[in-house]
Amino acid sequence: MVRTTPDEVLTGGTVLTMDSKTPFATAIALAGGRILAVGTDAEIKALAGAGTKHTQLHGRHIMPGLIESHTHALWGACRDLFDVYTGYSASLTELLQATGKRAANLPAGSTVHGGPWRHEMRSEMGQCPRILLDKISREHPIVLFDTSQHVAWANTFAIKQAGLGGIPDDIKGGVIERSEDGSASGIFAESAIEGLKALTVHTEAQMAEAAREFTRYFNGLGFTAFKEPMAFEPELRAYHAADQRGEMTLHAAAHIVKAGVSAERVSYDELERLRKSYRSENLRTDFAKLFVDGVAPSFTASFSEPYLASAGYDVAGHMPDATLLISPEEHAEMMIELDRRGFTVKMHAVGDNAISKGLDAIAAARRTNGMSGLRHEIAHASFIADADVARFRALDAIAELSPKLWAPNAATPSQIKVLGAQRLEKIYRLKDLHAAKAEMTYASDWPASAPDANPWTGLAGMLTRRDVTGQFAGTVAPSQAISLAEALPLFTTNGARSLKMETETGSLTAGKWADFITLPKPLSEMTPEEIGACTPLQTRWKGRVVYEG
Ligand SMILES: [Zn+2]
Asked: What are the CA-CA distances from residue 269 to residues 28, 43, 257, 363 (Å)?
């Protein structure tokens, strides 16, 4: 039934709705930023009134806007806009050049920071590494972090500003590398980096610019919604402020960190304060984050089987639970309480043992609280044990697949080196999860572990388990490839459910927000290579054109 006259009708195209009731259409009517109706050209034209705008699609294709379920959007944009970033394989010279370039573009006194540098560069950096950075600038504090982010390299200006000039006192839990005269050489580790880190905090103006930048970037890729997987107060404040200013043309959800990689825990009172203070129209804050394990290259992901001895791992000393960042008891307790308080929990879990423990904790919450309707997520879900595949559906849990490394990429050789080729045959078990009717979502994990947030290469990789850009040869676990029809819900309807927005977005259904993209033709008519190179012609969010190609 027609409730109102449309503001706009778009006709003469093809429409993929992702709504099983009316999967395909040729036209769509919008009113007040929402979808009024989807149907044939004749049906939709009949709704138009005197003030209705007519848009001719000329055979172009419309489908729902894409949803990214794990991206550190502000971090990524800040890194691109303000930080030195040369990637994990750059030489010391390249890093220093990039640092010099950044210093030349920043007013004196502003901190130049970024990285990463690697420990194999240490001898090249000299006895007193701060001198090398002093040559770049004595008027800017310079702080460069190593790949682990636990070790900082600073110039003399930064060292003084951080209160570590002269002959600094030792810092408990920290390492200050010293020159012969007792002064700091420029290398600081663990708690000794705190003062330097404080110099690298982005200003509010920078955070605002970063929010505009990721919004532009995401809308251009076809995204209309995303989830921030690791929010602390500065991120919450910045997302909230961007939404209040009307500059974040995306639906967002932020998982507030409850238990990070350190032993520190955020109290429930603090979690409640953060969720109440920063929720806004387009920012949902009823989400929490826990870290269950680490990452494979540093042997900190929790696997039931040992890493390879040939990679330098102590196989005899392997203890699967030794790399858990949270004990099973505390984990279960936390899940029960977060579920009770209405927080949807995302758990970082890479190794099969960590994933099992994550599912155990969800099971504990279900046992105590019943099925709460909150779909807790195993983030990354990289290596799932056979016995756990079916548990996702049974527990109403989500396998959030990220980073988008299911096709050959720069990290594949190092994964094979530490885990072995055989274990990689079961990385990102999309086919098995699909067969087990597990709910899955797509995520890039940009910028943490993926060079970009492009969903199209991610989608093409799911279909082929090849790198369709042709940069990296071979396949990654090709038996786990899924079809386009199987993959699309991960980017749309399932993503909307994980945002708790299934009645608001994710499909082109009357009453939902008009969040959609226009493509030159349907994805089903594209080769995987074409899908990988796809860019939307237009992105609409709440009916507004937020990107035009
Ligand atoms: Zn991440």
From this structure: 46, 53, 13, 25
